[in-house]
Design goal:
The complex is a heterodimer of chains A (about 200) and B (about 475). With about 200 residues, chain A is of the alpha/beta class. Chain A is built from seven helices and eight strands; from the N terminus they run ββαβαβαβαβββααα. Classes of the chains: A alpha/beta (about 200), B alpha/beta (about 475).
Chain lengths: ~200, ~475
């Protein structure tokens, strides 16, 4: 996984709440068995509308998505994270994320920054009045900087450490293989197996 | 200080605890299906890692499977490729699988419990958010993403931060005609789609103890729609009775040892929760959703809300958007909403009790000519049981289509879809835009309301039929 310390890019405002993972990527795109190439499915229903924010010329090449509250609700599909990343997003900013989506983002290296809704509204205004304005997301300092605005964000300490070090979870866990074996030896006989 | 059910199950599975790091939690049962697993198996293959415990892993085919002509090759080449990938992966890594055509095939969350694989006090995961269903047995069960699927396949563990706990207490007797589905829709309407975020919900109170195991599964299934990772019900005699004698339930001395432990799991009297919600069961009535998220629900007797009723600007925009998508006018009675499709099935309401409720309403009645009704059993076993009881005859004679087992129109990955502009009453779990097919509109309902709606052609409860005849 690529290490994430700080990122600067342009941002798109998504003025919607409750953006569920069916909207981020509909089920029809989930039939693929590959890990990449999901960018065409991202918000596919909304992108049919030429006025949708990601279709507007001034928001081409954006890498930061600034969304309303409760982003990523619904289905556990990790394809939602892959679709956002394949499209080019490095960071999603919202005042509240659904748990599973947030966990999936951390695994895949997509930063989900929890910013107070009042500050989200200020960021929306800044990137709407100047779509080319640089947005810096500093994971080390835990802040988003847009022009003169400095918005602190919340991120789990452990996720932050993993993202900054670019570490893979399975590799970390396999260091404790002996402890897993010790635990397995204590499991009661009545626990079922699938055999 | 006492502990909650969720805390007891968590603590019994901690492999490693270190300050400032997530706990490493052991996983007792890992369920796998074709949609969220191919990239996980691929990851194992490229890293040269085996599946650590294939004997604690079980795969079924459900999301993509057709519900007619299952003896013929699957028409959609992409669906077929995904099922073939699962079969090849299971063969390569030694994971047991119930494929299309097998007598144990079905929706992953119907199959686990009916085999007796889901037991109290277990940790259960699956790359599917509705894994919360298994919490009905007092298991800690939650959905995970594909990276976590790979992690569990490789290590049989997951690094996790402890969840907060929320008690949802439903006291009193449910009025006649009010089901577990109505209870969950009422809870989500009350606390919102983000209300459970970060929490494990524990459903408590006399109304919950009064529910069957099927009803408890419906309730726990929908926990994710309130934003919670998991929902749980403390195990009791009903749980033990449901499990006894099932294929994978313990026997003999093992059964006694298991029951002894299971009885220690319910939340201690002096335990405290991080949050509590109370609901008076006697005030509940059949609930339906009118909008595009499961929190946008109301009693069937209500009217479509207006953006003017919104609590804030975010809510106003959400109501406006939902009404536009659903093509509804504020103030119209929910009972006046006409549907053209009724779907009965899914991991929420595709079990035998649900099909019995539907057959009871349909018996001696006809589905309205303007309505197409699909009845899709949650598993092959449920289908066979229903056929042994003659439910399929009642359902077919009423004019509904009796199908093969699978996820079907809940998420429309197989050929069962709404066409743009079509409107369904559905016993499934999500009324998101396009969930049942691009441009389709969904009203979430209980099985009994689904059946009554099929008969009248508009949203209705069985009580409406009685008064009409």
């Amino acid at each position: 996984m690529e290490a994430f310390v700080t990122h600067t890019g342009t941002a798109a405002p998504l003025r919607r709440s409750n953006v569920d993972t069916d909207q981020i990527i509909p089920a029809e795109y989930l039939k693929r068995i590959t890990r990449h190439g999901f960018e065409d499915g991202l918000f596919s229903s909304w992108r049919k509308d030429s006025d949708f924010v990601l279709n507007r010329p001034e928001y081409q090449g954006v890498t930061v998505l600034v969304a309303g509250p409760d982003f990523g609700t619904g289905s556990s599909r990790e394809h939602a994270v892959w679709a956002l990343q394949d499209y080019g997003f490095k960071v999603v900013i919202s005042s509240r994320f659904a748990d599973i989506f947030r966990g999936n983002s951390g695994k895949g290296g997509l930063l989900t920054a929890v910013v107070d809704q009042g500050l989200v509204e200020q960021i929306w205004e800044l990137i709407e009045s100047d779509p080319a304005i640089a947005v810096t997301v500093d994971l080390d300092a835990r802040e988003v900087r847009v022009g003169d605005l400095v918005a602190p964000f919340e991120v789990d300490d452990y996720v932050r450490w993993r993202l900054m070090a670019g570490l893979d979870d399975i590799g970390i866990t396999l260091q404790y293989a002996d402890q897993i074996s010790d635990f397995e030896a204590t499991r009661p006989a009545y626990k079922p197996t699938t055999k | 200080m006492g502990r909650t059910l969720a805390e007891k199950v968590w603590e019994a599975h901690v492999v490693r605890h270190a300050e400032g790091e997530p706990d490493l939690l052991y996983i007792d049962l890992h369920l796998v299906h074709e949609v969220t697993s191919p990239q996980a198996f691929d990851g194992l293959r490229s890293a040269g890692r085996p599946v650590r415990r294939p004997d604690l892993t079980l795969a079924t085919e459900d999301h993509n499977t057709p519900t007619i002509d299952i003896d013929k090759p699957i028409a959609d080449p992409i669906s077929r490729a995904q099922l073939e990938a699962l079969r090849a992966n299971c063969a390569e890594f030694g994971v047991p699988i119930y494929s299309l055509g097998n007598a144990e095939q079905g929706i992953v969350h119907v199959v686990g419990p009916q085999l007796g694989l889901t037991q109290p006090g277990m940790t259960v995961v699956c790359g599917d958010s509705h894994t919360s269903t298994h919490g009905a047995f007092g298991a800690l069960a939650f959905g995970i993403g594909t990276s976590e699927v790979e992690h569990v396949l490789a290590t049989q563990t997951l690094p996790l931060k402890p969840f907060k706990t929320m008690a949802i207490t439903v006291e009193g007797e449910l009025p006649v005609g009010v089901t577990a589905k109505d209870v969950t829709l009422a809870i989500i309407a009350k606390i919102g789609t983000g209300g459970g975020q970060g929490y494990v919900l524990e459903y408590r109170g006399s109304a919950i103890r009064g529910l069957s195991m099927e009803g408890r599964m419906t309730l726990c299934n929908m926990s994710i729609e309130a934003g919670a990772r998991a929902g749980m019900v403390a195990p009791d005699e009903k749980t033990f009775e449901y499990l006894k004698g099932r294929d994978h339930a313990p026997t003999g001395a093992d059964w006694d040892a298991a029951v002894e432990w299971w009885k220690t799991l319910p939340t201690d009297a002096d335990a405290s929760f991080d949050a509590e919600v109370f609901i008076d069961a006697t005030t509940l009535s059949p609930y339906v959703t009118w909008g595009t998220n499961p929190g946008q629900g109301l009693p069937l007797s209500s009217n479509v809300p207006s953006p003017a009723d919104a609590v804030d600007e975010v809510d106003r925009v959400a109501i406006e958007g939902a009404l536009a998508y659903m093509d509804l006018t504020p103030g119209m009675p929910l009972r006046d909403i006409k549907v053209d499709t009724v779907f009965v099935g899914s991991c929420t309401n595709g079990r035998i009790e649900d099909l019995r409720a539907v057959a009871e309403v349909l018996k001696g009645r006809k589905v309205a000519p303007s309505v197409r009704m699909l009845v899709v059993p949650g598993s092959v076993r449920v289908k066979k049981q229903a056929e042994a009881e003659g439910l399929n005859v009642i359902i077919s004679e009423a004019g509904a289509e009796w199908r093969e087992a699978g996820c079907s129109m809940c998420l429309a990955m197989n050929p069962d879809k709404l066409k743009p502009g079509e409107r369904s009453a559905s016993t499934s779990n999500r009324n998101f835009e396009g969930r049942q097919g691009p441009g389709g509109r969904t009203h979430l309902v209980s099985p009994a309301v689904a059946a009554a709606t099929a008969v009248t052609g508009h949203l209705a409860a069985p009580a409406d039929l009685a008064s009409a005849s």
